[in-house]
Amino acid sequence: MNSDHALDGFRLVGIGSGFKSEVCDMIAESQLFADLDWKDIQALAEYVQCYEVSSGTVVFKEGESGTYMFLLVKGEVEILKTGQDGALHRMVLVTHGKIVGEMSIIDGEKRSATCAATQTSILLLLTKDHYTRIIKEKPVLAVHILARLAKLMSQRLRSVSGQLVEYL
User: Fold this and answer.
1) Which residues pair with 58 in a beta bridge?
2) How does 114-128 read in b/e, with b if 16+ C-beta sit within 10 Å?
3) Which CATH class for the 3-165 domain?
4) At a CB cut-off of 8 Å and minimum separation 6, what does 100 contact?
5) pTM to 2 decimals?
6) How far apart are CA 127 and CA 136, in angstroms?
7) Which of 19, 87, 143, 145 makes the best surface tag, with the fewest CB within 10 Å?
8) CA pair distance 40, 36, nearest whole angstrom
């Protein structure tokens, strides 16, 4: 997200080189990026922005264009899907350390669900534009990120497939 396209309810948290060390720590504590080399974590920190959202903030809506994914550093968000009755139904509650919205970075499709904060939360956003910059400027890092996202999506697909078998 560019600073001129701020999202409703998103408050930028910390800027400058001093804050970058905090961002590095946030990345290093995540399940997805914990095993990255420190130099890769430092490089990734240059491309993400840290935001705080209040409870009830809609982080993204089902059906809208997906332009970012985020690492949930603190707090909780829920993933909601519109049912046949037109109402939103909770699919999952996501806790800190998890990645959300990664499919839009990979496939460019519209959001498949709505995401809303259930409590005040801290998010590290990686926009599609910044990921494209990583591809151009740091291709090895881009491959590391893509490999981790592919593994994450594979694990999620296996989990859903296992759950689906119970309904057959």
Assistant:
1) 116
2) bbbbbeebbbbbbbb
3) mainly beta
4) 59, 69, 70, 72, 77, 79, 94, 115
5) 0.85
6) 14
7) 87
8) 6
pLDDT at 107: 85
What is the rounded distance in angstroms from the CA atom of residue 19 to the CA atom of residue 117?
Answer: 24
Report residue 74 as tokens. 């603190």
Distance CA 119, CA 165 (A): 33
What residue type is 112 in one-letter code? S
Residue range 95-122: average pLDDT?
92
Average pLDDT over residues 120-129: 95
Q: In what order do the strands lie in the sheet with 49-53?
A: 11-12, 49-53, 121-127, 68-74, 99-100
The residue type of 151 is K
HEC profile of 30-52? CCCCCCCCHHHHHHHHCCCEEEE
**CA distances (Å), 168 to each of 62, 158, 165, in order?**
27, 16, 5
Q: Are 111 and 60 in contact (CB under 8 A)?
A: yes
Alpha carbon 124 to chain centroid, angstroms: 7
